[in-house]
Design goal:
Elements (H helix, E strand, L loop, with lengths): L1 E5 L9 H13 L4 E4 L10 H10 L5 E4 L2 E2 L6 H14 L4 E6 L4 H7 L6 H18 L12 E4 L3 H10 L2 E4 L4 H17 L7 E8 L5 H12 L5 H10 L4 H13 L4 E6 L5 H10 L2
Parallel strand pairs: 1-2, 1-9, 2-3, 3-5, 4-5, 5-6, 6-7, 7-8, 8-9
Helix pairs in contact: 1-2, 2-3, 3-5, 6-7, 8-9, 10-11
């Protein structure tokens, strides 16, 4: 199983210097990819821009939106070109992870209706596929980026099998990942594909002396919109010491996950080294 790390692009107060230093350290320590989280009404960096900054200071590590909220980008042709641009500029390291999102305020601020977002995402993916296969909208690069679809609704598994190379789970634990992966693989086979889709998942970590405080200050705030009970579950599930990191890795690997992305609750680049040490990288 590949071990990836999320950029702190959704940790409030993260500076540009912290973000690029994080990317440099992540590559040096051997993480497979850098992920990003997407929101509109929040103190965060836009994912494609954050990954472009990371691409400029790295050479090997993968870059993945995990996930980009597709329906909030209303111009599918422009998004397709942005993805091609990042893929080309990074030397073919980008994976476009895409999903729906469900926050009323993100949709309201974007002037986009929440209802019908699944249908619009399907139409967007059709257009992205057209752009990527047409060769008329550049930049020139040999092959488009891989695409993975996020979400746990039945339509998400069908969408992944129709448009993507794989599926990515939310940060809901290894058991829900395993259940979702079974559905993703079933939809993949039903669509007539050979082999199996790539499956990925998200988890959270917060290490060091301020692990508990950082988890509560940032994760609880980010997920407050889901209600106190769910936010508390996410905070308590975050790996807060080396042993819990190893337990998360073992659980996801046993469940068949191809790549696990650990997202931080702090923007201190020292977190990269703490996670790498705990993961045995």
């Amino acid at each position: 199983m590949d071990v990836a790390i999320g950029l702190p692009n959704a940790v409030p107060g993260t500076t540009g210097a912290q973000l690029v230093e994080w990317a440099r350290r992540a590559e040096a320590r051997g993480f497979s990819s850098l992920g990003t989280i997407d929101r509109i009404v929040y103190d965060n960096y836009e994912p494609l821009i954050a990954l472009a900054a990371a691409a400029a200071v790295t050479e090997r590590i993968g870059l993945c939106t995990s996930v980009l909220l597709g329906p909030l980008r209303t111009n599918a042709t422009e998004l397709a070109k942005e993805a091609l641009s990042l893929h080309a500029l990074s030397g073919g390291r980008f994976t476009l992870g895409i999903g729906l999102g469900g926050r009323d305020d993100d949709y309201e601020a974007s002037g986009v209706e929440l209802t019908g977002r699944g249908r619009r995402l399907d139409a967007m993916l059709e257009r992205i596929e057209e752009v990527w296969s047409g060769g008329e909208i550049g930049p020139s690069i040999e092959g488009p980026p891989p695409l993975v679809v996020g979400g746990h609704a039945d339509a998400s598994f069908t969408r992944a099998a129709r448009f993507a190379a794989g599926w990515i789970a939310a940060s809901s634990g290894s058991e829900q990942y395993e259940e979702g992966a079974r559905k993703a693989k079933a939809a993949w086979a039903e669509a007539g594909h050979q082999g199996e889709p790539r499956t990925m998942a998200l988890a959270y970590f917060s290490l060091g002396d301020d692990a508990e405080a950082d988890a509560r200050a940032n994760l609880a705030d980010y997920y407050a919109w889901l209600g106190e009970q769910i936010a508390e579950f996410i905070v308590s599930a975050a790996a807060r010491d080396a042993e819990s990191v190893r337990q998360s890795l073992a659980a996801y690997e046993a469940a068949g996950c191809d790549e696990l992305i650990f997202f931080p609750a702090s923007s201190d680049p020292a977190q990269v080294d703490l996670l790498a040490d705990a993961a045995g990288l």
